[in-house]
Specification:
393 residues; alpha+beta; Butyryl-CoA Dehydrogenase, subunit A, domain 2; Butyryl-CoA Dehydrogenase, subunit A, domain 3; 3 domains; seven-stranded mixed beta sheet; 12 helices
Length: 393
């Protein structure tokens, strides 16, 4: 029987994997990486390559469906959901490179890549390409990757005013040295370690300009049919970073409900489920989680619908989208704060699922795309007649 890539079938498969991820969550955090068993589970459930283009044998599912799956997986383990969505969206990013690079990338089965989009590297011209050097941080899933996507600064573009000339380069892991420095509070299982590259040669066909990605003129736009490949990349990619957030909070909510149904007060052995403070916190947390979900999905669905119909995203919509992404995380953080605060002393143990979700959400909010301040300032500035301040706008 052929694999179904309908939204319903994919979500059902993700829901079956999520409990397994939860069982491994503590071990993944202790190991500071996603275990090989989890990556195998993703492949075996046929949840990988969802954004791989049809030209290379992929199902090319809708982006909003993929990000919904990230939320479902994150109900089990936020770190696993994070790595799944980040590595999965790379299939769309690689599809924007020249066709020769895409053939190299997908030459072997079950190919995954890690990335660091910050332009931390420097390039110098070399015959047929460039030489790349630098150090990059926050390379999620690097222990599970065969390729790296890295950002580099190549000077300034002579526009008015001048803007940075940022390039993204595709390298095999053999060109990269991994630095084991991922000792963190949240998202510990993502294994988002640093990497170093020292003068690696990168051929011209494995490099793409950020300016082309922003303007929908990436080389891949000539390789693949469909308006998605000609859309401004940063109108879509920030949704990826916040896609696991709601699942993290829902996983905490589920765990809290199960616990409070069974727990008794230490002093009088009365059921905690009967306590008004427990009920009130549960109600408010649930409302925050639902509201955040509606806010995020409203912007995501409208964005993908507009792109897939060949429409243009207005300035107002893109401003609102970034605002919605950031504020949904604010609400989810508050929801897990409420739940953790009502657990008492038992909530402080590392194996507690609510506490893990609390830490993971605070780590997600520390990401340049996952936080609130930047999109909030950008939204307010532009609406009041000022300039944009968000590089991912």
């Amino acid at each position: 029987m052929a694999t179904s890539y309908s939204r319903e079938a994919l979500i059902e498969r993700a829901r079956k994997v999520a409990p397994v991820l939860r069982e491994r969550a503590q071990a993944s955090g202790d190991a500071r990486r996603i275990p090989a068993e989890t990556i195998k589970d993703f492949w075996d459930a046929e949840l990988c390559y969802l954004l791989k283009p049809k030209k290379f044998g992929g199902p090319e599912v809708r982006v909003d469906t993929a990000f919904e799956i990230a939320s479902e997986l994150s109900r089990g383990d936020g770190s696993a959901g994070w790595v799944w969505t980040v590595m999965g969206v790379h299939d769309l990013f690689v599809a924007l490179f020249p066709e020769k690079a895409q053939h190299e990338y997908w030459a072997k089965d079950r190919t995954l890549s890690a990335s660091s989009f910050a332009p931390s590297g420097k390039i110098e011209p070399a015959p047929g390409g460039v030489k790349l050097s630098g150090k990059w941080s926050f390379c999620s899933g690097v222990d599970n990757a065969q390729w790296m996507i890295l950002g580099a600064f190549a000077g300034m573009i002579s526009t008015s005013p001048p803007i940075p000339d940022i390039r993204y380069l595709l390298l095999p892991m053999s060109d990269v040295k991994v630095i084991d420095d991922w000792n963190v509070m949240g998202l510990r299982g993502t294994g988002s370690k640093s990497v170093v590259v020292e003068g690696a040669f990168v051929p011209e066909h494995r490099m793409v300009k950020n300016d082309d990605l922003v303007n929908g003129k990436a080389p891949g736009a000539q390789v693949h049919d469909g308006p998605l490949y000609r859309a401004p990349v940063w109108a879509v990619f920030p949704f990826c970073i916040t896609s696991p957030a709601n699942g993290m909070a829902r996983g905490a909510f589920d765990s809290y409900v199960s616990e409070m149904k069974a727990r008794e007060s230490t002093f009088d052995h009365s059921a905690l489920s009967k306590k008004p403070n427990i009920q009130l916190r549960l109600a408010e947390a649930g409302a925050l989680i639902d509201a955040a979900d509606l806010l995020y999905k409203r912007s995501l669905k409208e964005t993908i619908d507009t792109i897939m119909s060949g429409g243009q995203l207005s300035l107002e919509v893109r401003l609102r989208n970034r605002r919605d992404q950031g504020y949904s995380v604010v609400m989810l953080q508050k929801a897990t704060d409420l739940l953790l605060g009502a657990q008492g002393g038992k909530g402080i143990f590392e194996g507690n699922h609510v506490q893990r979700s609390f830490r993971d959400l605070h780590a997600l909010a520390g990401h340049i795309v996952g936080g609130w301040d930047m999109p909030a300032l950008n939204y307010g500035s532009v609406l009041l007649g000022g300039p944009p301040s968000d590089p991912f706008f």
